[in-house]
Design a protein that fits this description.
Keywords: Membrane, Transmembrane, Transmembrane helix. By secondary structure, the protein is mainly α. 77% of the residues lie in helices and 0% in strands. It has one domain. The radius of gyration is 19 Å and the shape is elongated.
Amino acid sequence: MKPDDEALTTKQSLAIITEMINLTKGNIRNNSVYFLLWGSVIALANLSMFALLMAHYPRPYIVWIIVIPAWLLTLYLAYRHRRKHRMATHLDRINMWMWLCFGVVIFTLVAFGKAVNYQLNPIILLVSALPTLLSGVIIKFRPLIVGGICFWICGALSFVLGSPWQPLLGALAVTVGYIIPGILLRIKKEA
C-alpha cells in the first residue's frame, strides 16, 4: 500500500473534523451582519406596529413594508459575500439551506396569511425558533441557542396573549434571538 492510499488515523480524522467545525464557526460569525440587520428591522417593525395598534391606526401592518429593503440588502450582501472566495464547509451549506428554507416558509405564511386570519406573529415566532437554535447548535454558540428558545416561548405566549401584545413579544424575541447574538458574534469576530 502506498503512503497516499493509507487510511486516515483517528487523530487525523478528528483534526479534520475540528478544523471544519472551526471554519464553519468563523464563517457564521462573519455573517453576524444578517442577525443584526434582521433583528433591527423586525424589532423596529414590531415596535412600530404596537404603537400603531395603540393609536388605533386602521392598517398597522403597513410597517412591515420595511422588510422589502431588508431583503434587497440581504441579497446584495450575500452576493457580495459569496464573491469573496471563502471556503464553504458542509455545515455552512446546511446552515445556508436551512435559512433559505426558513425564508420560503415565512414568504408562504405571509402569502397565505388569510387562512389563519392574519394571526401570523405566533406562527412566525415559532418557526423562527428552529433555524436560530440550530445555528447556535452548529457553531456551539449558546446565545443563539437561548435566542431560539426565546422565540419558542414568545411564540407560545403570543397565542395566549393575543393582539396587541404580540408585536411586543416579537420585538423581545428578535432582540434576544438576533440582536444580542449578532452583537456577541461581532465582538467574537473582532477579538
